[in-house]
Amino acid sequence: MSLYLHATTTPAVIREAKAAGIRGVKSYPAGLTTNSESGVVDYESFYDVFEEMERCGLVLNLHGEVPSGEGVSVLTAEEQFLPILLDLHARFPALRIVLEHCSTAAAIEAVKSCGPNVAGGITAHHLSLVVDNVVDDAFNYCKPVAKTPADRNALLLAATSGNPKFFLGTDSAPHPSIAKRGGPDGKAKHAAGVFTQPYATQYVLDAFQSGVDQGILNPHVLEPVRLAGFLGEFGRDFYREPRSLQRIRVSLNQTDPIRSVISLEDKIEVVSFRREQMTRKLEWI
Questions:
Q1: Do 132 and 201 form a contact (C-beta atoms < 8 A)?
Q2: Fewer CB atoms inside 10 Å of the end CB: C or N, the chain?
Q3: Residues 3-13: tens digit of each pLDDT
Q4: Exposed, middle or buried: residue 179 (CB in 10 Å: 0-12, 13-18, 19+)?
Q5: 63: how many CB neighbours lie within 10 A of its CB?
Q6: Predicted local confidence at residue 37, as pLDDT
Q7: Which residues contact 159 (CB under 8 A, 6 or more apart)?
């Protein structure tokens, strides 16, 4: 469980969170994405909070973008945030930081340049999408938006590198389909977020296989030991959680269609990423 970094967050709140079993604190730049209206405007005002997080061993989870404005667009917002990441790491070197949902080659290189207390989360959908896929399909729209093919390829290479600084963070967002379409009349803002959770592992494997087929990745990246690191072990290690003893079996030959719409409590309809396409069968063993 995580806290939302907010103006009311104090060192005392961090100590209470630690005692309650909270593992991390999520930071959103104010107004940048869904439910971020009460997010961070000035990181300096939280320096005492970050110091306490260092002492308590909590993780800082960063949504790494700056708000759009003069000289900033959705395509550059992540890269322009990276100096903030580097500054926070320099000021608080013992603070564990995850740059969530990396979407650019620049973000990958920034995480690599930091010490072992900085890691990068990579989503299943960013391993497949490029900006062209976002422009023509609202259900592929998320923050940060998918970028160029070169950026997507950098994510694939990082995710399959065996570097423990990179691990899966799904950032799956089950927004109601009506919110993704801009509300009942289509005039509202479209909710940012991609729903991947029911098929997250298969989406990752499909992206890796596609990378192999295109010559971007070496076939050895599909070896189980390498997959296990990115899909679960590296993240658990970073959060200092025990590794799971559960195992899965993924079929190489059997596939199922991805459900287009998933109903929650027979009231809310959520549209799946890559709806109606085929993906591998998965079972827990």
A1: no
A2: C
A3: 999 999 999 99
A4: buried
A5: 22
A6: 63
A7: 122, 127, 166, 168, 204, 208, 230
pTM value? 0.95
Pairing of strands 59-62, 24-27: parallel
CA 42 – CA 52 distance, rounded (Å) = 17
3-state SS record for the chain: CEEECCCCCCHHHHHHHHHCCCCEEEECECCCCCCCCCCECCHHHHHHHHHHHHHHCCEEEECCCCCCECCECCCCHHHHHHHHHHHHHHHCCCCEEEECCCCCHHHHHHHHHCCCCEEEEECCCCCCCCHHHHHCCHHHCCCCCCCCHHHHHHHHHHHCCCCCCEEECCCCCCCCHHHHCCCCCCCCCCCCCCCCHHHHHHHHHHHHHHHHHCCCCCHHHHCHHHHHHHHHHHHHHHCCCCCCCCCEEEEEEEEEECCCEEEECCCEEEECCCCCCEEEEEEEC
Token code pair at residue 95:
């603070």
Q: How many angstroms separate the CA atoms of 95 and 29, rounded?
A: 19
What's the chain's Rg over C-alpha atoms?
19
Peptide bond into 144 cis (omega under 30): yes
Look up residue 228 and give its two tokens.
């296990």
